[in-house]
Task: inverse folding
């Protein structure tokens, strides 16, 4: 096997709570912006919300 592993520190994955906060923040433009950008934010929020594990 050839190649090097990165030596830079990696950021941890976000937590479930942080993901829920992000989904909430994405829903705000979806409700305030009626353009395709707002719709895209709403779609992204819905996609992420479906991927959050149930606790």
Result:
């Amino acid at each position: 096997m050839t190649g090097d592993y990165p030596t830079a520190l990696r950021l941890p994955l976000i937590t479930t709570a942080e993901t829920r906060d992000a989904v909430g923040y994405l829903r705000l433009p979806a409700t305030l912006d009626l353009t395709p950008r707002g719709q895209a934010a709403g779609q992204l929020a819905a996609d992420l919300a479906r991927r959050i594990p149930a606790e």
User: Anything to note?
Assistant: The longest helix spans residues 16-32.
